[in-house]
Amino acid sequence: FLQKSQGKLWMHTSGGALLLPADGVAWEMVAQTDAGTTIQLLAASPSLLYATVNGVMSCSEDGQAWTAVNLDDDENLFPFTNHAATYYTQSNGTARVILTGSCGETTATWYREEDEDEPWLLISRTGDNDYNLPWSSLKEGSLVDYCSKIIAIGKSASTYYSTDNGVTWKEYTELTLGSGQQAADGEHIAA
């Protein structure tokens, strides 16, 4: 699992190590999961890493010292697995981190603004919203901030975007790849 923060690329391995590249080829261990500590990297912003540390949502500047961060809603709705995250800088200069993923049969999208001690906030879903992100259908999805949109893309044939900070999502009805290009596994991107 890779995240970019503080101009560095951070990697969390399945064995529990948190790594930084020393020279672009060799990686150095920053933190290691041991018998008493479990770290799972979830997201990053320009200045902070976000992870669960012993099951508690936390943030860190250096990957070694972690501070607990609250969730404003039911922890059972937080996608600790099968998720993706991105961040962008708002017009007021504050970073906003968006994290979305599957919680059972439901897609949950959360965000955190880094202006104070704000908790992670769940973007509320009521009723049968036709504009929810169908995360599980994306197959190994990723999020990226691009051109004032949050784009969700995966190995499936569909790509979605949000222009309102992840509240609603719409499917791109047509994407054009350059001449001779195709999607992974020979799948089409255009819907």
Describe this protein with a few key phrases:
mainly beta, disordered C terminus, four-stranded antiparallel β-sheet, about 190 residues
Structure, described:
By secondary structure, the chain is mainly β. Helices cover 0% and strands 42% of the residues. It has no helices and 16 strands. It starts with a strand and ends in a 20-residue tail after the last strand.
Topology diagram in text:
Blueprint: E1 2-5, E2 8-12, E3 17-21, E4 27-32, E5 39-44, E6 49-53, E7 56-60, E8 67-68, E9 83-89, E10 95-103, E11 106-113, E12 121-122, E13 142-146, E14 149-153, E15 159-162, E16 170-171
Antiparallel strand pairs: 1-2, 2-3, 3-4, 5-6, 6-7, 7-8, 9-10, 10-11, 11-12, 13-14, 14-15, 15-16
Q: Approximately how much helix is present in the residues?
A: under 10%
Output the strand order for the largest sheet: 1-2-3-4
Q: Report the uncertain regions.
A: 185-191
Computed Rg = 17 Å
The rough form would be described as globular
Q: State the distance separating the first and last CA atoms.
A: 28 Å
- Average predicted confidence as pLDDT: 79
Total helical segments:
0
User: What is the succession of H and E elements?
Assistant: EEEEEEEEEEEEEEEE
Report the major sheet.
4 strands, antiparallel
Q: Structural class, please?
A: mainly beta
The beta-strand count equals 16
Content of β-strand:
35-45%
